[in-house]
Amino acid sequence: MNKKTEIVKSIILTLLVAMSVVLFANTWVSQWDYSEGGSILSIITSKTGLFGGSGNSDDSTDIFTPATVMLTSGAKRIIVDKGTEKFSSMYGDILSVFLSYNDVSENAEETTEEQWYYQQKNHSIYVDFGINIKREVLNYALGCAVPDNVKTVSSVVFTTNGSATNKLVVYYYNGLENKYYMQATSESAEPIEKLLSNVKGYENIPLAVELGFNTSPEEGFGGQITINGSVPIILESGEAPKPLYKNIKNAVTTLDNRALNKMLKCFGMSVSSANRYADKNGTAMYIDTEGTIKFYDDGKSSIIEYEAANMARGVEFENESAPALGSMVSGGYDIANKMCGYFDLNDICLNVSSDITDNMVNENGEFAFYIDYCTEGIPVYFCDNNKAEHSVELKFNSKGNLVYFKQRIFNVLPTDSKNEFPAVIEAIDNVHSVVNKDIIKIKKIFRGFCINKDESISGIWCVKLEDDETVYLVKN
Amino acid sequence: MKKALKVMVLFSLVLSIFSSFNVLAADPGMVGNSVIKIKKPETYTSTTTQKEYYISGITKSGVAVSVYRFNPYTNSFNLLYVDGKAAVQTAGASGLIAQKVYLTDGNNRIRIRTDSPDGKITLLEVNITLNVLSLNDIQKSPIDIRKAIEA
């Protein structure tokens, strides 16, 4: 009898030990962050640098991918937006053109707006970043060599025009100071010639400068509107894939404990150290000494919001080699990207949508930038307002640490159906209905998707003005 | 007294002729009237190598702008149809209009008609010459140029 009891006791004890080992292992493994790799081995290699792991998951090249590339050959053009298949197939070649004149360290020569338009109108490749980017940040991110005197880059033109020996000539536009630069290189222009001749599907798309729409408004005529000469004026209505909006209600409840812990770790917090609260409105909060993370729903989508407990601390990004702004953008973008991963927003792409320049740093040394969601390269906005609301908002303190982060959680899924986009000129006609200004100077016009109140998605044109960071949504 | 009056009339006539020349000289490229200003082409007479050409301008909201081309066989201007659509546009709030036209080789006499909501009609004519030879052709040999012309 005693022997039997002893055996039962031993079995129970063994089971208890085994269970504690399993539970411990489970808890320990859940602390690992899989987002960078996918297996423990990959995490070990990335953290330690073993087996060729670099220890740095910097994806800056993706962050500063241009918004649009426009190829002009003869009098015809192709406009290729980021996120499309065509873009992916040619971007590597464009990047290699960027890197081909790495050895040039001389200052670029300042040139005129007329020269810039002349180059853009003729045999050339126009690369538009969609935002103004500080020279040092772009050089670090792409590994290119933008000359010292070009402080900010908004767009670039690669051409052979003006070179008697068929060498690559590069033009830069600094949109912040409205200055143009020209840099003659000793590199062959063959790669851009190859790109221009290999791409198929050239169309007759005029630029605003070719239609005279960039000139001063005529007194007594029309709506007192001028358009930046580089803007392509698409005169025919067109089509784009129609995505499907997917609202992820109570996003936090879709995460298991491990995913939640990984998410909190992005902000220097953990499930074990944070206290969980829930208020009567359904807001879930995790609070610890580092900060507060809230999960709530504002009727449009779920939202994650982080605020540092101490504005002098926040989330630190270690990247000594990167310029300050570059390190913040890279770190912040990485968190937003991870959030998309935790909620399986696999069809969403992220677009940095505000300038990455010193102008975005306030007098206290604090920096803010925004990211928009996009699908097939086209940004997605909620349409309850005429002004676009960004999907991700990030603020950094003067030390470069993240102190505020807000991200909407929703998905847009591709479908086989098509969305119609009206001709650009219709959007220009409707600009006065959303912009309350006597004279309107349009800097950019680009396609966007608008999520309506009934959760349907329609194609719209988005307008950015000179000296105004707002994206205006022009509905039909 | 009569002589002095004659001199004054003659002087004012000469002055008005000179001043009218000055007005033209000050803005020789302006193409337009009180209802529409044509932005492209910039002058009444122009040359291009682009067969697919855009005529653009600015007018007042609500004005219908139609584009006609001279037909030497019928000795009249015919409304253009581009890609199956009549070349007629009504300007929106911006007043900006742009119309694609397919030019024929040589001179194209284009007439632009505006119909204002108050019933007022204006007509404007521009001449656009389509040059079949592009800059690239100039670099070719005379034989290539002859072939291009024959083609």
Structural summary, described in words:
The complex is a heterodimer of chains A (476) and B (151). Chain A has 476 residues and is an alpha+beta fold. Chain A has helices at 2-30, 40-48, 60-63, 85-100, 113-121, 135-142, 190-198, 208-211, 257-266, 324-342, 424-430; strands spanning 68-73, 76-81, 109-111, 124-134, 152-159, 167-174, 179-188, 225-227, 238-241, 244-247, 275-278, 284-287, 291-297, 302-308, 349-352, 367-375, 378-382, 392-396, 402-413, 418-421, 440-451, 457-465, 471-474. Chain A contains eleven helices and 23 strands. In chain A, the strands form three sheets. In chain A, strands 8, 10, 11, 12, 13, 14, 15, 16, 17, 18, 19, 21, 22 and 23 form a 14-stranded mixed sheet that branches. In chain A, a hairpin with a 5-residue loop joins strand 18 (392-396) and strand 19. In chain A, helix 9 packs antiparallel against helix 10 (324-342). Chain A is globular, with a radius of gyration of 26 Å. The N and C termini of chain A lie far apart (87 Å). Chain B is of the alpha+beta class and 151 residues long. Chain B contains three helices and twelve strands. In chain B, the strands form three sheets. In chain B, strands 3, 5, 6, 9, 11 and 12 form a six-stranded mixed sheet that branches. A four-stranded antiparallel sheet of chain B has the order 1-2-4-10, with no helix packed on it. Chain B has a two-stranded antiparallel sheet with strand order 7-8. Chain B starts with a helix and ends with a helix. The A-B interface holds A 74-75, 204, 206, 210-213, 215, 217-218, 220-223, 225, 233, 235, 425-426, 428-433 and B 36-37, 39-40, 42, 49-50, 52, 54, 56-61, 91-98, 100, 134.
